[in-house]
Amino acid sequence: MSYKDTQQTEYPAPATNRKNGEDALYMLQEEPAAKMPDLILLDLNMPKMNGFELLSLIRENDHWKDIKVFIQTTSDQSEDKTLAQTLGISGFITKPLKLDSLSSMDAFNLMMDLMNM
């Protein structure tokens, strides 16, 4: 492959991270529709705005509601999983990743598949 060929190839956007829920919300508000993320890996325990608050806002917005959102958290509380599912997550991953947890591994594998599409 020549240098010219590599310049014509479209690569996925790099991953970005935000310090807290408010920063993540600001990023979504400022991005043009064509640059929306394909997937969001969201922690529940963020400062300023927790993951549930941000997820609710994502799901209420017509431009963002179809973004795949995976929860990655230390919480293994069934109430957190139920609320996250009610809010339309794509997967719930408990950290540290528990290799003996089928639901965490299924969510992790689905997330990896979506990232490689």
TrEMBL record:
<protein>
    <submittedName>
        <fullName>Response regulator</fullName>
    </submittedName>
</protein>
<dbReference type="Pfam" id="PF00072">
    <property type="entry name" value="Response_reg"/>
</dbReference>
<feature type="domain" description="Response regulatory">
    <location>
        <begin position="1"/>
        <end position="110"/>
    </location>
</feature>
<feature type="compositionally biased region" description="Polar residues">
    <location>
        <begin position="1"/>
        <end position="10"/>
    </location>
</feature>
<dbReference type="InterPro" id="IPR011006">
    <property type="entry name" value="CheY-like_superfamily"/>
</dbReference>
<feature type="modified residue" description="4-aspartylphosphate">
    <location>
        <position position="43"/>
    </location>
</feature>
<dbReference type="InterPro" id="IPR001789">
    <property type="entry name" value="Sig_transdc_resp-reg_receiver"/>
</dbReference>
<dbReference type="InterPro" id="IPR052893">
    <property type="entry name" value="TCS_response_regulator"/>
</dbReference>
<feature type="region of interest" description="Disordered">
    <location>
        <begin position="1"/>
        <end position="22"/>
    </location>
</feature>
<keyword id="KW-0597">Phosphoprotein</keyword>
